[in-house]
Amino acid sequence: MFATTITGRPRGALAAAALAVMLAACGGPTASTGVTSAPASEPAPGVSGEPAASAGYSGPPATIEYAIWGDPAEITSQTAIAQTFMDANPSITVNVSVSDWDAYWDKLQTGIAGGAAPDVFAMDGPLFPDYQSRDVLLDLKPFIDRDGYDLTQLADQGVADFTTEGGQYGLPRDLNVIALYYNKAKFDEAGVAYPDDTWDWAKLVDAAKQLTKDTDGDGTMDQWGFYTETTDMENYWLSTVWQNGGDVLAADGKSTVLGTDEAAGGIQFIQDLIWKEKVMADPAVFAETGDAFEQGVAAMASNGSWLVPTFQAAGVDFGIAPLPSGPAGRFTSVNPTGAVVYKGSKSPDAAWEFVKYLASPAAQEQLMQLKASLPVSKEVLAGPYATSFEGAQVFADSLEYAKLKPSFKGYNEFTTLLQGELDENVFSAANKTAKQALTDIVPQLDALLAGQ
Amino acid sequence: MALADLRRIAPPRAGRRGPRAGEGRWALLFLAPTLVGLALLSAGPIVAAFGISLTSWDLLTAPEFVGLDNFFALFRDPRFLIALRNTAFYTFISVPLGMFLSLGLAIALNQALRGIALIRTAYFLPVVTSATAVGLVWAWIYSPVDGILNQFIGVFGFPAQKWVSDPFWAMPAIIVMSVWQGLGTSVIVFLAGLQGIPQEYYDAASVDGAGRWSRFRRVTLPLLTPSIFFNGILALIGAFQVFDQVYVLARPGKPTQATITLIYFIYENGFKNFKMGYAAAASWILFLIVAALSVVYFRSQRRWVHYQ
Fold this sequence. Notes:
The structure holds two protein chains of two kinds. Chain A is of the alpha/beta class. Chain A has helices spanning 2-7, 15-26, 51-54, 72-88, 101-113, 128-132, 141-147, 156-160, 184-190, 201-211, 237-243, 261-276, 283-289, 308-313, 348-358, 361-368, 378-382, 392-398, 411-427, 434-450, and strands at 62-69, 92-99, 120-124, 163-164, 167-168, 171-183, 224-228, 298-304, 318-321, 332-341, 402-404. In chain A, α11 (237-243) crosses α12 (261-276) and α19 (411-427) runs antiparallel to α20 (434-450). By secondary structure, chain B is mainly α. Helices cover 73% and strands 1% of the residues of chain B. Chain B has 13 helices and two strands, in the order ααββααααααααααα. Chain B has a two-stranded antiparallel sheet with strand order 1-2. In chain B, a hairpin with a 7-residue loop joins β1 (55-56) and β2. The two termini of chain B are 28 Å apart. At the A-B interface, α1, α2, α5, α13 and α19 of A face α2, α10, α12 and α13 of B.
């Protein structure tokens, strides 16, 4: 009675037990894929250029588990891509499994701890070092060398994010960049010219002021000139830090340079949009009610390329422009999602074949139809993608001035500490200037980085 | 002495292998699923978690033995102390509040009215509703733009509040939602307790001239103490493990310093920060706190719990 009642509650059993149950549940024997790969299928770096290798997979039949995070549209798309791959490689079966973002990483970690990780899985750029440094990913360099695979066919930043000294621990699968979305109707209504590549911070503020309106005169704004998400550096503040000449990490990656005036100035710009210029709502408001641009109550938004299908579905008539440049120039953020192979995979050859396929022009053309991310294949980027929807060209061009979202060991803990301070004291309320908040939090961030 | 005591309470014909001996075996058999479950799924993991708490383990590479370092580090970790403080605040507000409200509600629902079953069911609905759905509805009630709560207080001229993102209101907002969601469980227990009180006691009390309040104070309350005790222990343990309510309601983004609780801290360290050993140590501290409070609570029942 006692036990059943307790377990009936959310997160029921005692904490210690709950935690350990998760571990125990995953601590079983390695899940058998029913396929044993012959030792001969190990990569043989010495035989590059072998015709059989480039003709595709010729190993024993294999089943590979492919895990991704995503929404229903992505599941459909990735499953279709896997199906095309299986049609071309009948001896390989690919099982696609999908989780939401949080559950994905929980399952992945427990899976690896229990020796039952998927063979191929999606990897977020910033989290890559946390996995790679713990030796759970397979180095693909021997396969790349063996097949003479040309990495330069893929977007440079995408490749670089999964490159280590001497190794290549994954191929990029897609890219996401940040740009300026604008609501055409709101601009037309206010008689403001659409944003273009001549825009800088001052022009952004100027236009945003004209587009912030209290239409019913009740003293509260009904339309905001600008909107972005402040709870993650990617959506905007990372770019403004770069645009102001700042950065997140020092060159050696051992400490943060967020305490500099340049970095603080980039974050201060956003605090000013909210609390000084008042062209952007208190972020807490839309964190609770959803995306202001999607709802049609913001005229502009700095946000990710992944939102195109969302905004289209919401019926917003929008355009896409480059992020306005700052005092130190024009920058935006690019964040690749990679496909990596589990080091303990029973079928590394089949897994490699699939990873390679995911980055191929054929798969990339399928992927780009979602409009949810940029293809990594340069051929597709420059060709079909750039003309696939209005604004795609802006995304493709932005790779020229895009920098990689920081990627380092301890990323989650770092951002939790940092965002806690910024959200509470800089963005949701102007309790501190950006400089003050950063000065307060940087010692903790540095201590954290030193311990990694 | 023990033997003598045992003889005294032993069944009169202890020597005979009668139905009672069989009953014991049957009882064990029926208890087996729970006992086996507890041993495998609770006791084992609790011990395993203690082992893990003595290591530095990122889940991905081999654990490294570090002795009690994790425990020492926890008490120097401001985030852990904040989580501890928040959890204590949540527990010591939500448990008494929930008990008080559910007792009142149970008494109100303990009437022979038409359609009372329907009303009772309505109060139980939140219990069986997913925390996510409940969180969404409450996010709407608490909405800083035109949420029901802000509209309501606006009628009385109060300014709109950011109920879930303002550090001052965040935890009270979570407590109110959790109490509302948890009411049904304790109401059911109280209702069962109320209906188990024989009508004769009330009749006798009335004959003796006891009024409504006296009957409640002298008959209902003492006879309800086992239910109060039972609800109290469940609420206490549940409150220390609060997670879902925080997870679904916390904005912006993630739980902040105002709302991180022990379980969230454990989750965050184990699965986000690659510190499973540290998380296991925190879970052991939580376990010890709950165990200690439970012992104190069980010891106290001699003084205030009356079994019929």
